[in-house]
TrEMBL record:
Alphabetized SUPFAM superfamilies for the sequence: Mitochondrial carrier (SSF103506)
A cellular component term, taken from the record's GO annotations: mitochondrial inner membrane
Solcar repeat feature ranges: 15-100, 108-200, 209-299
GO terms of molecular function: transmembrane transporter activity
Provenance organism: Phaseolus coccineus
InterPro entries on file: MCP (IPR002067), MCP_dom_sf (IPR023395), MCP_transmembrane (IPR018108), Mito_Metabolite_Transporter (IPR050391)
UniProt KW Transport keyword: yes
Protein name: Uncoupling protein 3
Pfam families: Mito_carr
Membrane topology: Multi-pass membrane protein
Alphabetized UniProt keyword annotations: Membrane, Mitochondrion, Mitochondrion inner membrane, Repeat, Transmembrane, Transmembrane helix, Transport
Entry keyword Ribonucleoprotein: no
Localisation per UniProt entry: Mitochondrion inner membrane
Amino acid sequence: MKPGHQNVGVDSAQTKVLLTSFSAMVAETTTFPVDLIKTRLQLHGESLSSSCSASAFRVGLGIVREQGVVGLYSGLSPAIIRHLFYTPIRIVGYEHLRSVVSADNGSFSVVGKAVVGGTSGVVAQIIASPADLVKVRMQADGQRMNQGHQPRYSGPFDALNKIVRAEGFRGLWKGVFPNIQRAFLVNMGELACYDHAKQFVIRSRIADDNVYAHTLASIISGLAATSLSCPADVVKTRMMNQAAKKEGKVLYNSSYDCLVKTVKVEGTRALWKGFFPTWARLGPWQFVFWVSYEKFRKFAGLSSF
């Protein structure tokens, strides 16, 4: 190895981390209101006072009426913090594993991409799970306020402190198993589909390696990721939102218990609650993220993802 080559590799990795973090922050801020509505819809059904005819529009309108437009960004700060860890690990990790596997085998199938994408997502989610927990709790606080209750937390650090005091340090990883399942499915759908779809578009000469190819690939990956991950996302949201009561009782004892009770009480379709808001968010999120990230890579002198 020639002198300086190792430093170049390190600099390249650091640049990718910075670019993924910035691109994720832009995408998260742009689409966060839709994520908030999706979370409220997924929690809908746990309360007996909830209306079964709730819709994304009604939920969004209710938030604006009760809290103003700023209410649509309740929980944004922990979401941004989460992506500072989650996105760089999964994106840069996927690209690194892809280069290692393809270098060894000379090729990289869609199945291999799916496994690598899911694996990188799992590692990233384990690390970012506490921030994800805080985000869900703060998003759910808005629903409590609509019902006349006081919010549980005044901010992300207050939420972290109260969760640790009430539920222990391990409480920060509540819902980590459905989170891991969701992360595997999301990244299997998102990273593998984006990567494979973009290469297909380019090879088929539908478009060059430009914004058109990136847009088509992001739409396909968004739909695949949503379809695969929605059930796990519903379970994850409900598991993470529940806080232990004084007597130590909780509504769901495990992810499986949550899954069974949700289907038993609300039917199988409940596992896809929030599907359209989720897709409506993942589509624009991936469009903003991938187009921004690809452009930033080009400006930084890096090759296309």
